[in-house]
Design a protein that fits this description.
The chain starts with a helix and ends in a 16-residue tail after the last helix. A two-stranded antiparallel ribbon has the order 1-2. The chain has one domain. It contains 13 helices and 2 strands. With 372 residues, the protein is mainly α. 66% of the residues lie in helices and 1% in strands. It is globular and about 60 Å long.
Amino acid sequence: MKRQYDLDWIRVIATLAVFIYHCFMFFNPWAWHVKNNETDPTYITALSLFMSGWLMPSFFVVSGINSYYTLQKRSGRQYIKERVSRLGVPLLFGIMILTPPQIYMERVSHGQYSGSFFSWYPHYFDGVYLGIGGPGNFAFVGLHLWYLLVLLIFSLITLPFFLKIKPNISRELTPFHLFVLSIPLIIITILIDVVNLGGWDISFYLAIFLYGYIFFTKSTFKSVVQRLLPATMTISILTTVFFVFGFMTGMPSDNGGLSILLACVKAINCWSWLLVIFALADKKLSNPNKWLNYGSKVSMPFYVIHQPIIVTLGFLISDWEWSISVKLIFLLVTAFIMIIVFYHYIISRFSFIQILFGMKGSTGKISEIKEN
């Protein structure tokens, strides 16, 4: 099986985008763990809305693709063992070590606690954390690490199906098929409301994960999305403008036809951007280089550690009398440098720490299971 470097690039770029998105969360008007003393309801909010449409779905579709390639050369037992070690271990580490300081800073910044971290820590196990500003403290999903938990659950519940039904990758995929695949996503977005994480219901992520496994692995998929690129790019731009404008002007609060229309546009926007991303990655990012090699190694530790660092820096600078632009640049640059330094001088040098961050120990390979 030929290695698909475009999938590596998509993951690395998406990880960097998540980092930028969480820096934006410090400044946009939405509820978050810590907030700046001044928020921006304009360009930062618009950029946050744009990124939320495709960001986490891109992780799940790539994970679905990788599940297919992994199961071509590993047994179901090996697959589950790898998923538990590469997803479960960093999730548990995050829940017990990385999450408590973030909850503590949230409580202090929201005026819910005023003592030291060490005096608060025993209260971490008081109640279940279900949202920003809520009464419970124990964040069993690890806050931003919910992706690892959800992906682990998906891997477990879909394995019997994956082992029983092998997708026929040689079967032709047409533009009509891609159009039809958007319909279930629209229906899910409108009708299903189970658990919302990262801007989407968990059922939406499951559908995208299955799409990655079944459809994005087709041999004709990349040629089809290449042909459709002008159309999908146009749809992506138009739906982005409509969705951002609609959300910022209050359409979701309509609870009627306008909110349904916005939900439809949101689903179409996500689907079209995914097709654009894979078309552009196949066209421009199909070759490896030193940056991809380094980015692939650092992507999982980067994902695990980035939010605790952003929250900590945000907590420290929230009351500084700097403009939003200056604070944003400071947060982006300082947090990025701290993450890379932490990886380079600590994580990459100790095997047992690498395991905690979903890597393969001394080999320093990345956590996400790949096709080779």
